[in-house]
Amino acid sequence: GGRVAHGALGLAVATGLFSQLGITAGTLVALVGVDWNFRAPIRPGDTVRLHLRVTEQRPLERRDRGLVRFAAELINQDEVVVQEGVFTELIRTR
Predict the structure, then answer these.
(1) What per-residue string of b and e applies to 13-48 under the rule 16 or more CB within 10 Å gives b?
(2) What is the DSSP-derived secondary structure letter of residue 94?
(3) DSSP label at 50?
(4) Cα dihedral sign, 75-79-82-84
């Protein structure tokens, strides 16, 4: 019933919102991986927000870096999780 946005648009919006939070600004070395699931359609005119939480932190042999996993939920204006997944990032440590 009706038009829907391409799933990749939701993922692009999620990564953009994540970046705008600035929580890895100056420390992000690389995006190592994304595991992403499409749960419900995003429709033209929808408003979405991103909910993030750290699920794992793991230091690497090279002590100045570590892997951090962020669980992410892209949620629409009706509080429906439309997309969700995990971002794994290589982060520079202190």
Answers:
(1) bbbebbeeeeebeeeeeeeeeeebeeeebbeeebeb
(2) -
(3) E
(4) positive
Structure token digits, residue 52: 């993030």
Bridge-based pairing of strands 48-59 and 81-92 is: unpaired
Give counts: helices (H), strands (E), the chain.
Answer: 1, 4
Burial of 6 (0-12, 13-18, 19+ CB in 10 A): exposed
Going by pLDDT thresholds of 50, 70 and 90, the confidence category of residue 36 is very high
Q: Are 79 and 10 in contact (CB under 8 A)?
A: no
CB of 72 closer than 8 Å to CB of 14: yes
pTM: 0.91
